[in-house]
């Protein structure tokens, strides 16, 4: 069972390569996009502010609009090689997936179930941050991926005042 947390996430700027990618080509896209983003940032003297991250904006049954890159300081935003997006601070639901990507779908299923149970509906933007993954010397059983669903503010269910007082 995956531990799922609802929290307020800070604003984050991500610089990388963005494209519509068929689901079957995601691994190859990441293998190309992450080194390009890292090299572009390095050439400007920019150090990533965290582990590699993918930002998912939209999807069709066959493909996804994704940016693969690194968190950066806002001033390091983009140039002709990389694009950037700033995700605003706000409410999110997050879970850490432990293990290879083959069963990452199980973590997504648990997140969707949790969100439905808590009346949160469909998420907005989604991210995967690869804390430990293919670029490390760790075996796949030790990989860690943080999956975050950003909650559109109009879909966040407020806690009734009586329940909030009882919890405090």
Automatic annotation (TrEMBL):
This is AraC family transcriptional regulator. It comes from Herbiconiux ginsengi. SUPFAM superfamilies: Probable bacterial effector-binding domain (SSF55136). It comes from the Bacteria. Gene3D superfamilies: Regulatory factor, effector binding domain. InterPro entries: AraC_E-bd (IPR010499), GyrI-like (IPR029442), Reg_factor_effector_dom_sf (IPR011256). It holds the Pfam family GyrI-like. Residues 2-152 form the AraC effector-binding domain.
